[in-house]
Specification:
The longest helix has 14 residues. This protein has a domain of 115 residues: 2-Layer Sandwich (Alpha-Beta Plaits). A hairpin with a 4-residue loop joins strand 6 and strand 7. The protein has 179 residues and is α+β, with helices and mostly antiparallel strands. The strands form three sheets. Strands 1, 2, 3, 4, 5 and 10 form a six-stranded antiparallel sheet that branches. The chain has a two-stranded antiparallel sheet with strand order 6-7. The protein is globular. It binds 7-(2-hydroxyethyl)-8-mercaptoguanine. 7-(2-hydroxyethyl)-8-mercaptoguanine binds next to strand 4 and strand 5. The site of 7-(2-hydroxyethyl)-8-mercaptoguanine has 12 residues, from strand 4 and strand 5.
Length: 179
């Protein structure tokens, strides 16, 4: 294994990916490849793609969403900085808080870490209300517990009507990663 890649014992983190502008699946695949090429980050699992109705501001295009599990020797803050760099490199322009975006990478969970900093709150404060996060997360980590409740149970408790799983083969998904 590359010495630049995290050990099997390194912390596990979960990231939400979303896009509702441009070549959505292509941008998400590109973001995953960039993440996986960062020394200290290895993408170990990727959910299916989900077509999801926009939440927050409804008059914008449909999103594609997915969740990735990574192992990382980066700190939560370093991992967040890496995500923000990838967003910028893929043309994300932050104009409106809830507006359309080429790519969105949100850090959902970093092991059992709980954090409340200006730039980063862990677990992600809105993840339990969002079917576009819980549906893909439940696919790859149904038994993961958040505040004593599994992700599968949290998903079962919310409205999933705006979320549709897409057939992976039709989108060349998940992308092939180098590691
Ligand atoms: O917070 C992530 C960006 N975002 C999304 C999203 O990724 N998916 C859906 N369906 N709605 C969203 N609203 C915002 S903001």
């Amino acid at each position: 294994m590359s010495p630049l890649k995290p050990a099997a014992t390194a912390p596990t983190a979960y990231l939400s990916l979303g896009s509702n502008l441009g070549d959505r699946a292509g941008l998400m695949a590109d973001a995953l490849g960039r993440l996986d090429r960062i020394p200290g980050v290895r993408v170990v699992a990727v959910s299916s793609l989900y077509a999801t109705a926009p939440v927050g501001r409804e008059d914008q295009p449909e999103f594609l969403n997915a969740v990735a599990q990574v192992r990382t020797s980066l700190s939560p803050q370093e991992l967040l900085a890496a995500c923000l760099r990838i967003e910028a490199d893929l043309g994300r322009i932050r104009t409106e808080r809830w507006g359309p975006r080429t790519i969105d990478l949100d850090l959902l969970l970093y092991g059992e870490t709980q954090l409340a900093e200006d730039a980063l709150t862990l677990p992600h404060p809105r993840m339990s209300e969002r079917a576009f996060v819980l549906a893909p997360l439940a696919e790859i980590a149904p038994d993961l517990r958040l505040g004593g409740t599994t992700i599968a149970d949290r998903l079962a408790a919310i409205d999933r009507s705006g979320v549709r799983r897409l057939e992976p083969a039709k989108f060349g998904w998940p992308p092939a990663l180098a590691t």
